[in-house]
Prior knowledge:
alpha+beta, globular, six-stranded mixed beta sheet, 2 domains
Amino acid sequence: MAGAALMLAACNESPKNATSTDEPEAFAEEQNEPVAAPAKAQTLADINAENLPVVKPNHVWLMPSDKELKEWNELNEQAENEDADLPENVWARYEELGENPVLEELYSDKCSWYCGGEVKKVTASSYLKAQGKNTYKPENAHNFNHESVWAEGAEGQGIGEWLDYEFEGKCPRVTGVEVITGHVKTQSAWTENSRPKFLKVYYLGKPICILALEDKRAMQYFDLEEFGPFGYHDETKPSWHLRFEILDVYPGTKYADTVIAELMFDGIDVH
């Protein structure tokens, strides 16, 4: 065969999927809140009274098109079948699609911070109620699956809602963040739901910077080494947290709910 099937990273049995959450209280809001009348536009100065550093993405990797994602999903199912005997040209196409930087980050077995790093727990200020089989819990924003998402469950567009990531003291230190905003499963889902525009980052409860996200159906990488590294890489130290608070959004055309598909980490102390 021309290559091995792509899969969730498992370098040294790295637990990319080892996330959990405490159950927040249920919210009474109706699912998929219709988009409200536009609020008065805010400037960055309006939401950055603390005058925190504003960080733009170092890299922006676009999602594959809907057609390419559908093709990759179909080929991925075939490739994961151990009994599949796929022609060389099919494997070649599968590998070609898998070289998209977003799919590679999510599904390849290349070495990364997750070879030694692990998120202990993901919690959120709120989340949208499940709709059928679709859930919107906070751990969806760290399950390495672009089709599932965290959607905040507060009234309006979720300004002030947050995701919180807990790490053990022994965890390798963090120096970078990768964010996929919006419901990127399809172009229409991404357009219809709101996406974060600015995220305030807290380390150990203290605000350190603001991430300025581009409004693109993409994975955006932020190098935060100048503010860190975050954590200890010391098993004698206590757990520590990174929190990401929504300050402003790009409004969806149909729904007010603000969505994050993935928020992942990069760092040091692994190899």
